[in-house]
Structures are given as C-alpha cells and as structure tokens.
Amino acid sequence: MLDRLGLAQRVVLIIAWAMTLIVLGLYLVSLERPAANFGWFGYAPLTQASFQTGLRPWEQLLIWIGLIIAWTIGSVLLLHRRATPPVEPSSD
User: Fold this and answer.
1) Do residues 17 and 75 make contact, with C-beta atoms less than 8 angstroms apart?
2) Which of 54, 18, 14 is nearest to 34 (CA)?
3) Which residues have C-beta within 8 Å of that of residue 32, sequence separation ≥ 6?
4) What one-character DSSP code corresponds to residue 38?
C-alpha cells in the first residue's frame, strides 16, 4: 500500500508521525513519579526541594532519544525506495 504513495504523501506521513511522537513525548515527560505524590508531604516546608515531581533529566533524555530513533527508523522505512526487479524481455 505504501509503495503506491508519492513523495509528497510520504513526507506528509513523516510529518504526521513526528507530530504524534512529539505529543507522546510531551505526555511521557510530564508524568510524575508515583512516589512523589504519595503520603503526607504536601505541607512540609521543603517539599519541592526534597521530593521532586516528574522524571529525572536523564530519564527524559532517554525518552526523547528513543522517540527520535523511532522517528528516524519510520522515516527511513517510509522513504526507502525498494528496488524493483528488472523485467526480462520475453523470448517469443
């Protein structure tokens, strides 16, 4: 099915794939760690300093690197032109 798409249509699919991965990445990075909002820590004076919410920076980096790799693989597979086998002339 993808073989019948033109280059412009493939580029549109790649952009849509990128936007989907960006939304997924923003969602995943915005998630909080379960332990950060557990218990009675909300009234402690140094709550924000002692109990970080959200993912650590290296975890966020791994998420974005994984999504960039997924986008790259999807783009290469979509833009890769499959070599068509040469047609041999019939000997009639």
Assistant:
1) yes
2) 54
3) 53, 54
4) -
Mean pLDDT of successive 10-residue segments in the chain (92 residues)? Answer: 84 95 93 60 55 78 96 92 66 61
Alpha helices in the chain (DSSP H): 7-30, 47-50, 57-79
- Quote the CA–CA distance of 35 and 38 in Å, as a whole number: 5
pTM value is 0.68
Q: Give backbone dihedrals phi and psi of 37, rounded to 5 degrees, phi first.
A: -115, 30
The full length of the chain comes to 92
Say how far apart CA 53 and CA 82 lie, in whole Å.
Answer: 47
Using DSSP, state whether 9 is helix, strand or coil.
Answer: helix
